Amino acid sequence: DIQMTQSPPSLSASLGDKVTITCQASQNINKYIAWYQQKPGKAPRQLIRYTSTLVSGTPSRFSGSGSGRDYSFSISNVESEDIASYYCLQYDNLPWTFGGGTKLELK
Amino acid sequence: EVQLVETGGGLVRPGSSLKLSCATSGFTFSNTWMNWVRQAPGKGLEWVALIKDKYSNYEANYAESVKGRFTISRDDSKSRVYLQMNTLRDQDTATYYCTRRGYGDYWGQGVMVTVSS
Fold first, then answer.
1. Which of A97, B41, B86, B105 has the most CB atoms around its CB within 10 Å?
2. What are phi and psi of A75, to 5 degrees?
């Protein structure tokens, strides 16, 4: 199984900051990574798939990049509505596997 | 509009069974892979099972933690996907989501399953 190591587990940011979350796969996942946002009590919402493709409705301040084993997800100009948990998912090889999550809080 | 609606959750005793259902609409279900993903209270996301479409012979795949106990199935005529859960354990307590496509572009609202004596 592919392990997804997501870091950091938590992140504190001020409004307007740029934040970056990383996911490292235990093997090459050929850019098949998606990123999700989850707010308390809600279902996750996909923001990005295939490393950097923004899902319809995802604000342009969100971005993704990477290749091989190493991937990153960034939010430029953090807004209050971005306070949530974020997860990566590799869907290159079954079983699909999620990263452990990153909780973004306001400083 | 794509919609996924899970039902069938509840409180059950360890060792018992439960069947979840996910009703879908707004897309061509028959050629779409579907997943179940769960989230234990206060924890992260865990992929549970995938069922492929008829073109992939409805192949099913499972997380090791549920293999042999859970069965995913689908009814293309009803645009529904199911998760039959047998021999439930305390550790299966979670919110269960059905998701569309391999990369989970749409999620249902989730259904809570509590396994407790």
1. A97
2. -125, 120
